[in-house]
Amino acid sequence: MLKLIPKEPAAISTKDLCSKLKEFGYSVTKRTVERDVNSMVEAGFPLVVDDSEQPHLWSWSRQSNGFHAPRMNISDALLTVMAADTLIDLLPNVVSESLMSLKIEAEHTLNAVQSSNQLVSWREKVAIKSPTQQLIPPKVDEVVKTICYEAHLHDEQIRIKYLNIKSDSPAEYTINPLGMVQRGWMTYFVVTFSGHQDLRLIALNRIKEAQRTFVPAVKPEGFSLAKYVEDGFADFGHGQIINVRAEISPTLHKYLLESKLSEDQTFDQFEGKIILNAKVAMTPQFAWWLKTWEGDIKIKSDHQLKTGI
């Protein structure tokens, strides 16, 4: 609450304090906020109130330094900066704004000790690189993003205008948002369209207009975002798990010993050949992986795999 109060001449009303606190998960009444702020004044905090307005307006006095939380240590600052760079696009506004404020504080902390603390240089010693061709992320309408994130946070249906990649003009839909998936440089919503049960992936950047309905979203019974991703749907599969048996080269064998294709993968030796056995979600991503190892893998069995690629 104290962090939300600005310094004079700016001010915030009790009503707005209540609203912002609710966004952070603190459901309090106007009376409670007024009582708590008054108790801070009585305790010696340099807060001022403009009681000529209803509801009252609150500020930190011009002579004060406002409210400051204890300074971050170096480990916290490094964690904050790296987390912000990775997570910022997946967070609702109320959280991302807080994270950006923390990131600014963290940057100041790291810059202040840059020449005397080796831990500060860690972020310059690591990098995240996509294994696929890197493209420039598509532009996302910030108003649309805010509306969609808020509706998803509150489990509400969203009325949208969506431009399918195969269409020239957007179409109107009402969607039930069920989850979000960050896939490379693209952000997708897992949804059902109103009146339908099948799960769909829609790209956030292709939503051209959005409107909150304040109508509760309809969720399929037993839906789990983690299971949805595990079954390959987030890679545009159809939930099909296949049993793969394939002859592989010694090079691919070594690679799969380091990075497994599946948790249940096993290897057989047959007539001097290495045979891979694994259960895998049948997706375009897996088909592409097979192509990258063309010449190192020869499928022995799975009729579905041979006819499905």
What does this structure look like?
The protein has 309 residues and is of the alpha+beta class. The protein contains 9 helices and 12 strands. The strands form 3 sheets. The chain has a 5-stranded antiparallel sheet with strand order 7-6-5-4-8, with helices on one face. Strand 6 and strand 7 form a beta hairpin. The radius of gyration is 26 Å and the shape is extended.
Annotation keywords:
SH3 type barrels, disordered C terminus, 4 domains, alpha+beta, 309 residues, 4-stranded antiparallel beta sheet, 12 strands, extended, 5-stranded antiparallel beta sheet
By DSSP, the count of extended strands is: 12
Approximately what portion of the residues adopt beta-strand conformation? Answer: 25-35%
Low-confidence stretches: 303-309
Rg value: 26 Å
The ordered H/E elements are EHHEEHHHEEEEEHEHEEHEH
The CATH class of the largest domain: Mainly Beta
Q: Count of DSSP helices?
A: 9
* Class inferred from helices and paired strands: alpha+beta
The overall average pLDDT, rounded, is 88
Helical proportion, percent range: 25-40%
Total separate domains: 4
How can the largest sheet be summarized?
Answer: 5 strands, antiparallel
**Which overall shape is indicated by the principal axes computed on the Cα atoms?**
extended
Give the name of the CATH architecture of the largest domain: Roll
Strand order of the largest sheet: 7-6-5-4-8
Q: What is the CATH third-level topology name of the largest domain?
A: SH3 type barrels
Distance between the termini: 57 Å
